[in-house]
Amino acid sequence: xxxxxxxxxxxxxxxxxxxxxxxxxxxxxxxxxxxxxxxxxxxxxxxxxxxxxxxxxxxxxxxxxxxxxxxxxxxxxxxxxxxxxxxxxxxxxxxxxxxxxxxxxxxxxxxxxxxxxxxxxxxxxxxxxxxxxxxxxxxxxxxxxxxxxxxxxxxxxxxxxxxxxxxxxxxxxxxxxxxxxxxxxxxxxxxxxxxxxxxxxxxxxxxxxxxxxxxxxxxxxxxxxxxxxxxxxxxxxxxxxxxxxxxxxxxxxxxxxxxxxx
Length: 262
What we know:
Helix content is 16%, strand content 26%. The protein is α+β, with helices and mostly antiparallel strands and 262 residues long. It has 3 domains: 48 residues, Structural Genomics Hypothetical 15.5 Kd Protein In mrcA-pckA Intergenic Region, Chain A, CATH 3.10.290; 93 residues, Pseudouridine synthase I, catalytic domain, N-terminal subdomain (Alpha-Beta Plaits); 79 residues, Alpha-Beta Plaits (2-Layer Sandwich), CATH 3.30.70.1560. Strands 6, 7, 8, 9, 10, 11, 12, 13 and 14 form a 9-stranded mixed beta sheet that branches.
């Protein structure tokens, strides 16, 4: 894109939308101007402004020489949800009893070691859909996406995508209990998905079990543990399909990288 090299007029400008000013400067359509602004390519008096509705008059408006509309792609965010946050609640549902995990998706919580190379933009926090539910009391990987392809994949293949969950239970776990969990337990109401369970670690007071489950839903692991007499102390989801949480700290998020596939 070649931008106009004409200097901005010295005469006083009337108050107008930033998108209108940018459309004149490029020149381009109003929608393209909005995309340049939302893409973080436009600054007003030296400060990047990402809101096309912002008002300007005698302000110095500049467009980055590297500006491009090619990077305006939908993104997917991966959050390490702490216990106590509702994984799929919308922001408008927030109250004393409900804390939407989506409220943690803020610039300040972006993981410093995010290697995706994605330019962080305010538009990335809008129109997000939470997928793959997780118990409120559990911690771990939660996915928020703007990308309809990711959403369709996680919804349509929910029954075959494997999730890895670390479950800490009280006391030791006898080998016979692990065999019962792995061989499958019956439910009077529905067929339960197959479960692979192994001992991850053990201490004097508790044991950590690794569950690998396809088609898991909130409450399933608690039901299975209750059936074999295990008391759950904590749960953490580490992986959904082929995408893992990596080294995210509780409350932090990162972008899904281009090569990652669920």
